[in-house]
Design brief:
Largest sheet: 7 strands, mixed
CATH topology of the largest domain: Thiol Ester Dehydrase, Chain A
Structural class: alpha+beta
Order of helices and strands: HEHHEEEEHEHHEEEHEHEE
Distance between the termini: 57 Å
CATH class of the largest domain: Alpha Beta
Strand content: 35-45%
Number of strands: 12
CATH superfamily of the largest domain: Hotdog Thioesterase
Radius of gyration: 22 Å
CATH architecture of the largest domain: Roll
Protein backbone atom coordinates (compact mmCIF):
# COMPACT_ATOMS: atom_id res chain seq x y z
CA UNK A 1 0.00 0.00 0.00
CA UNK A 2 1.34 3.46 -0.91
CA UNK A 3 0.48 6.25 1.52
CA UNK A 4 0.75 9.92 0.61
CA UNK A 5 3.24 11.18 3.18
CA UNK A 6 1.86 14.72 3.04
CA UNK A 7 -1.14 13.38 4.93
CA UNK A 8 1.07 12.28 7.78
CA UNK A 9 1.56 15.86 8.98
CA UNK A 10 -1.85 17.57 8.92
CA UNK A 11 -0.55 20.76 10.47
CA UNK A 12 1.26 21.38 7.17
CA UNK A 13 -1.67 20.68 4.86
CA UNK A 14 -4.80 21.35 6.94
CA UNK A 15 -5.77 24.49 8.81
CA UNK A 16 -8.50 22.68 10.76
CA UNK A 17 -8.00 19.70 13.09
CA UNK A 18 -10.38 18.30 15.70
CA UNK A 19 -9.17 15.87 18.40
CA UNK A 20 -11.29 12.95 19.63
CA UNK A 21 -10.76 10.04 22.01
CA UNK A 22 -12.04 6.58 21.05
CA UNK A 23 -14.77 5.36 23.42
CA UNK A 24 -15.36 1.74 24.46
CA UNK A 25 -18.73 1.71 22.69
CA UNK A 26 -16.98 2.42 19.37
CA UNK A 27 -14.76 -0.68 19.23
CA UNK A 28 -15.76 -4.12 17.95
CA UNK A 29 -14.97 -7.64 19.17
CA UNK A 30 -11.41 -7.23 17.92
CA UNK A 31 -10.98 -4.14 20.15
CA UNK A 32 -10.51 -1.80 17.19
CA UNK A 33 -12.87 0.91 15.99
CA UNK A 34 -15.85 -0.48 14.09
CA UNK A 35 -15.63 0.83 10.53
CA UNK A 36 -18.89 2.81 10.57
CA UNK A 37 -17.64 5.01 13.39
CA UNK A 38 -14.99 6.60 11.20
CA UNK A 39 -17.77 8.32 9.29
CA UNK A 40 -19.15 9.52 12.60
CA UNK A 41 -15.75 11.02 13.40
CA UNK A 42 -15.76 12.84 10.06
CA UNK A 43 -19.28 14.14 10.67
CA UNK A 44 -18.32 15.37 14.16
CA UNK A 45 -15.30 17.18 12.74
CA UNK A 46 -17.42 18.82 10.06
CA UNK A 47 -19.76 20.22 12.72
CA UNK A 48 -16.73 21.66 14.52
CA UNK A 49 -15.42 23.05 11.22
CA UNK A 50 -18.58 25.14 10.77
CA UNK A 51 -18.36 26.25 14.41
CA UNK A 52 -14.73 27.32 13.94
CA UNK A 53 -15.85 29.42 10.98
CA UNK A 54 -18.40 31.13 13.31
CA UNK A 55 -21.24 29.72 11.23
CA UNK A 56 -24.22 28.36 13.21
CA UNK A 57 -25.13 25.60 10.76
CA UNK A 58 -28.93 25.63 10.97
CA UNK A 59 -29.22 29.42 11.03
CA UNK A 60 -26.69 29.70 8.21
CA UNK A 61 -28.68 27.44 5.92
CA UNK A 62 -31.89 29.31 6.70
CA UNK A 63 -30.14 32.59 5.94
CA UNK A 64 -28.84 31.26 2.63
CA UNK A 65 -32.13 29.54 1.73
CA UNK A 66 -30.39 26.23 0.98
CA UNK A 67 -29.54 22.77 2.25
CA UNK A 68 -26.21 20.97 2.05
CA UNK A 69 -26.72 17.39 0.90
CA UNK A 70 -24.06 14.66 0.92
CA UNK A 71 -23.62 13.15 -2.54
CA UNK A 72 -20.65 10.82 -2.13
CA UNK A 73 -18.33 9.63 0.65
CA UNK A 74 -15.03 7.81 0.17
CA UNK A 75 -12.94 6.44 3.04
CA UNK A 76 -9.60 4.71 2.50
CA UNK A 77 -8.55 2.64 5.53
CA UNK A 78 -4.83 2.34 6.24
CA UNK A 79 -4.70 1.29 9.90
CA UNK A 80 -7.04 0.88 12.87
CA UNK A 81 -7.64 2.95 15.99
CA UNK A 82 -8.27 1.23 19.31
CA UNK A 83 -9.98 1.97 22.59
CA UNK A 84 -8.83 5.18 24.33
CA UNK A 85 -6.65 6.30 21.42
CA UNK A 86 -6.47 10.02 20.81
CA UNK A 87 -7.14 10.65 17.15
CA UNK A 88 -7.04 13.83 15.06
CA UNK A 89 -9.54 14.47 12.28
CA UNK A 90 -8.18 17.06 9.86
CA UNK A 91 -10.04 18.46 6.88
CA UNK A 92 -10.09 21.23 4.34
CA UNK A 93 -12.82 22.49 2.03
CA UNK A 94 -12.59 22.88 -1.72
CA UNK A 95 -15.29 24.40 -3.92
CA UNK A 96 -15.44 22.42 -7.16
CA UNK A 97 -18.13 24.26 -9.10
CA UNK A 98 -21.13 26.51 -8.57
CA UNK A 99 -23.14 24.00 -6.51
CA UNK A 100 -20.64 21.46 -5.15
CA UNK A 101 -18.05 21.53 -2.39
CA UNK A 102 -15.67 18.77 -1.31
CA UNK A 103 -14.17 18.11 2.11
CA UNK A 104 -10.88 16.22 2.01
CA UNK A 105 -9.07 15.02 5.07
CA UNK A 106 -7.28 12.48 7.21
CA UNK A 107 -7.82 10.70 10.51
CA UNK A 108 -4.55 10.14 12.32
CA UNK A 109 -3.08 8.82 15.56
CA UNK A 110 -0.05 10.99 16.05
CA UNK A 111 1.83 10.84 12.75
CA UNK A 112 0.22 7.54 11.74
CA UNK A 113 -2.39 7.78 9.00
CA UNK A 114 -5.46 5.70 9.83
CA UNK A 115 -8.06 6.88 7.29
CA UNK A 116 -8.05 9.32 4.41
CA UNK A 117 -11.44 10.55 3.25
CA UNK A 118 -13.31 12.66 0.74
CA UNK A 119 -16.84 13.96 1.21
CA UNK A 120 -18.70 15.53 -1.73
CA UNK A 121 -21.70 17.75 -0.99
CA UNK A 122 -24.18 19.66 -3.13
CA UNK A 123 -26.23 22.75 -2.27
CA UNK A 124 -29.90 22.30 -3.10
CA UNK A 125 -33.10 24.27 -2.85
CA UNK A 126 -34.85 23.14 0.40
CA UNK A 127 -38.20 22.71 -1.36
CA UNK A 128 -37.49 21.57 -4.92
CA UNK A 129 -34.24 19.75 -3.97
CA UNK A 130 -32.70 21.00 -7.22
CA UNK A 131 -29.03 22.08 -7.16
CA UNK A 132 -28.31 25.74 -6.56
CA UNK A 133 -25.14 27.80 -6.55
CA UNK A 134 -23.01 28.12 -3.46
CA UNK A 135 -23.82 31.56 -2.05
CA UNK A 136 -21.05 34.05 -2.85
CA UNK A 137 -20.74 35.11 0.82
CA UNK A 138 -20.29 31.51 1.97
CA UNK A 139 -17.83 30.86 -0.82
CA UNK A 140 -15.79 33.82 0.39
CA UNK A 141 -15.88 32.61 4.01
CA UNK A 142 -14.59 29.18 3.02
CA UNK A 143 -11.87 30.56 0.79
CA UNK A 144 -10.77 33.10 3.41
CA UNK A 145 -10.52 30.48 6.16
CA UNK A 146 -8.54 28.06 4.04
CA UNK A 147 -6.23 30.95 3.11
CA UNK A 148 -5.57 31.67 6.79
CA UNK A 149 -7.67 34.84 7.02
CA UNK A 150 -9.89 35.83 10.00
CA UNK A 151 -13.45 34.53 10.14
CA UNK A 152 -14.83 37.34 12.33
CA UNK A 153 -15.39 41.04 11.79
CA UNK A 154 -15.47 43.12 14.99
CA UNK A 155 -17.43 46.35 14.94
CA UNK A 156 -17.49 48.89 17.75
CA UNK A 157 -19.68 51.90 18.34
CA UNK A 158 -22.64 53.34 20.15
CA UNK A 159 -26.11 51.92 20.73
CA UNK A 160 -27.59 53.70 17.73
CA UNK A 161 -25.11 52.00 15.41
CA UNK A 162 -24.98 48.51 16.94
CA UNK A 163 -27.99 48.18 19.23
CA UNK A 164 -30.20 46.21 16.87
CA UNK A 165 -27.58 43.51 16.27
CA UNK A 166 -26.42 43.45 19.90
CA UNK A 167 -30.00 42.95 21.12
CA UNK A 168 -30.54 40.10 18.67
CA UNK A 169 -27.71 38.14 20.29
CA UNK A 170 -28.62 39.18 23.83
CA UNK A 171 -32.26 38.21 23.48
CA UNK A 172 -31.28 34.79 22.13
CA UNK A 173 -28.85 34.18 25.00
CA UNK A 174 -30.35 35.92 28.02
CA UNK A 175 -34.09 35.91 27.29
CA UNK A 176 -34.67 32.80 25.17
CA UNK A 177 -31.93 30.56 26.62
CA UNK A 178 -31.56 31.75 30.22
CA UNK A 179 -35.18 32.92 30.65
CA UNK A 180 -34.24 36.36 32.00
CA UNK A 181 -37.21 38.74 31.60
CA UNK A 182 -36.71 41.17 28.73
CA UNK A 183 -37.40 44.18 30.96
CA UNK A 184 -34.45 43.15 33.18
CA UNK A 185 -32.08 42.49 30.29
CA UNK A 186 -32.65 45.86 28.63
CA UNK A 187 -31.58 48.93 30.62
CA UNK A 188 -30.77 52.63 30.26
CA UNK A 189 -26.99 52.03 30.40
CA UNK A 190 -26.96 50.89 26.77
CA UNK A 191 -27.24 54.48 25.54
CA UNK A 192 -24.04 55.49 27.34
CA UNK A 193 -22.01 52.32 26.73
CA UNK A 194 -19.29 51.46 24.24
CA UNK A 195 -20.52 48.38 22.35
CA UNK A 196 -18.76 45.62 20.42
CA UNK A 197 -20.43 43.12 18.08
CA UNK A 198 -18.76 40.23 16.26
CA UNK A 199 -20.09 39.24 12.85
CA UNK A 200 -19.40 36.08 10.87
CA UNK A 201 -18.55 36.01 7.20
CA UNK A 202 -22.16 36.02 6.00
CA UNK A 203 -23.07 39.02 8.12
CA UNK A 204 -24.74 37.36 11.11
CA UNK A 205 -24.14 38.88 14.56
CA UNK A 206 -22.72 36.09 16.74
CA UNK A 207 -21.34 37.74 19.89
CA UNK A 208 -21.53 41.03 21.75
CA UNK A 209 -20.51 42.92 24.87
CA UNK A 210 -20.46 46.46 26.26
CA UNK A 211 -18.16 48.70 28.30
CA UNK A 212 -19.34 51.31 30.81
CA UNK A 213 -17.38 53.93 32.68
CA UNK A 214 -17.04 52.94 36.33
CA UNK A 215 -15.65 54.89 39.27
CA UNK A 216 -12.05 56.02 39.72
CA UNK A 217 -10.71 54.60 36.47
CA UNK A 218 -12.55 51.28 36.54
CA UNK A 219 -14.22 50.07 33.36
CA UNK A 220 -17.35 47.94 33.75
CA UNK A 221 -17.82 45.17 31.18
CA UNK A 222 -21.26 43.65 30.81
CA UNK A 223 -23.85 41.97 28.61
CA UNK A 224 -21.25 39.52 27.27
CA UNK A 225 -23.13 37.07 25.06
CA UNK A 226 -22.18 34.47 22.46
CA UNK A 227 -24.63 32.36 20.46
CA UNK A 228 -24.93 28.99 22.18
CA UNK A 229 -23.84 26.81 19.26
CA UNK A 230 -20.69 28.87 18.71
CA UNK A 231 -19.26 28.92 22.23
CA UNK A 232 -15.78 27.62 22.90
CA UNK A 233 -14.02 28.70 19.71
CA UNK A 234 -13.00 32.28 20.45
CA UNK A 235 -15.86 34.67 19.67
CA UNK A 236 -16.31 35.74 23.29
CA UNK A 237 -12.57 36.23 23.77
CA UNK A 238 -12.44 38.40 20.63
CA UNK A 239 -15.21 40.68 21.91
CA UNK A 240 -13.62 40.87 25.37
CA UNK A 241 -10.25 41.85 23.86
CA UNK A 242 -11.85 44.76 21.99
CA UNK A 243 -13.56 46.02 25.15
CA UNK A 244 -10.31 45.75 27.15
CA UNK A 245 -8.45 47.65 24.42
CA UNK A 246 -10.97 50.48 24.58
CA UNK A 247 -10.70 50.61 28.37
CA UNK A 248 -6.91 50.81 28.06
CA UNK A 249 -7.16 53.52 25.41
CA UNK A 250 -9.29 55.78 27.60
CA UNK A 251 -6.99 55.29 30.62
CA UNK A 252 -8.85 52.83 32.87
CA UNK A 253 -6.62 51.02 35.37
CA UNK A 254 -8.80 47.91 35.53
CA UNK A 255 -11.87 46.32 34.04
CA UNK A 256 -14.41 44.44 36.14
CA UNK A 257 -17.52 42.42 35.42
CA UNK A 258 -20.21 40.30 37.03
CA UNK A 259 -19.61 36.77 35.72
CA UNK A 260 -22.15 34.01 35.89
CA UNK A 261 -20.43 31.25 37.88
CA UNK A 262 -20.86 28.92 34.89
CA UNK A 263 -18.60 31.29 32.91
CA UNK A 264 -16.02 31.88 35.66
CA UNK A 265 -13.52 29.47 34.08
CA UNK A 266 -13.75 31.29 30.75
CA UNK A 267 -12.74 34.59 32.33
CA UNK A 268 -10.04 32.99 34.48
CA UNK A 269 -8.40 31.55 31.37
CA UNK A 270 -8.21 35.12 30.01
CA UNK A 271 -6.49 36.45 33.13
CA UNK A 272 -9.43 37.67 35.22
CA UNK A 273 -9.49 37.05 38.97
CA UNK A 274 -12.47 36.59 41.29
CA UNK A 275 -13.17 39.17 43.98
CA UNK A 276 -15.63 38.92 46.86
CA UNK A 277 -18.42 36.44 47.49
CA UNK A 278 -21.03 34.88 45.25
CA UNK A 279 -24.22 36.87 44.81
CA UNK A 280 -27.54 36.55 43.03
CA UNK A 281 -28.31 38.68 39.97
CA UNK A 282 -31.47 38.21 37.85
CA UNK A 283 -31.93 34.85 39.56
CA UNK A 284 -28.49 33.49 38.60
CA UNK A 285 -25.35 32.98 40.68
CA UNK A 286 -22.63 35.56 39.88
CA UNK A 287 -19.21 36.59 41.10
CA UNK A 288 -17.30 39.83 40.48
CA UNK A 289 -14.12 39.41 38.45
CA UNK A 290 -11.45 41.94 37.53
CA UNK A 291 -8.36 42.40 35.36
CA UNK A 292 -5.66 45.01 35.94
CA UNK A 293 -4.72 46.88 32.77
Amino acid sequence: MTINNTLLQPQQTFRFTHRLRVRWAEVDMHRVVFNAHYMQYVDTAMAEYWRTLALPYEEMMQELGAQLVVKKVTLDHHASAGFDDQIDVSLRCQILDNAAIVFKGAIQRGDELLVSFELSCVFVDPISKSPRSVHSALRQVLENFEAGKPVLTLKTGDWEALGWDAMEVRIEVFVDEQLIPLELENDADDEAAFHAVAYNGIGQAVATGRLLAGHQGQGRIGRMAVKRVLRGVGQGAAVLAVLQAEATRRGDHEVALHAQTSAQGFYERLGFKARGDLFDEVGLSHIEMFLLL
